[in-house]
Amino acid sequence: MTDISAPSGVKELMGKYDLRCRKRLGQNFLVDANIVNKIISSASLERDDVVVEIGPGLGVITRAAASGARLVVSVELDRVLLPALEETLQGFDNIHIVAGDAMDTDFDSLVQSEANYSGPYKLIANLPYYITTPLIMRLLLNRFNISLCVIMVQNEVAERITALPGGKEYGSLSVAVQYFTEARYLFKVPRTVFIPRPEVDSAVILLARRERPPVEVPDEDFFFRVVRGAFGQRRKTLLNALSATFDSISRERMKDLLQGSGIDPGRRGETLGLEEFAGVTKAIYGELPQPHCIE
Ligand code: SAM
Question: pTM of the full predicted structure?
Answer without folding.
Answer: 0.95
